[in-house]
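user: At home tonight, take the chain set out below, taking as long as you need, and be ready to discuss the fold:
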Amino acid sequence: MRFKKKKRKVTTGFSPGDKYVAQLDRGEKVTTEQLAEMLVTSSTVSKGDMLNTLDSVITQMIYVMQLGHSIKLRGFGTFYVKTKVKAVDTLEEVTADTVERIGIGFLPDVEAKDRMKKAPINIIPSEEETPENP
């Protein structure tokens, strides 16, 4: 993982002022097509078949979640339906309109968390740093 050195203004705590932090360099998003190409290199499946498979997995995951189910992907984590609902005083007042938001949540598996913790960390020098002034 790559991190950039960044200057931040801290306004709370014991010693407020300008501070420096490591900020994750997120890089570019990996597309479904790029992921398919990566998966093809470690399998005997063609890129077209891999794209169709990924598209089918995504379609079916959304369908299953629309039915209210969670999905556990072994070694990765669990996707689940998140909701925000409005509380009302009577049973009769509970309608579809009291469901304010529906979304998708994710809980990573312990193995996935552990692998992320073990990822190598590289700190990228900031533009302010020069070879003479590290």
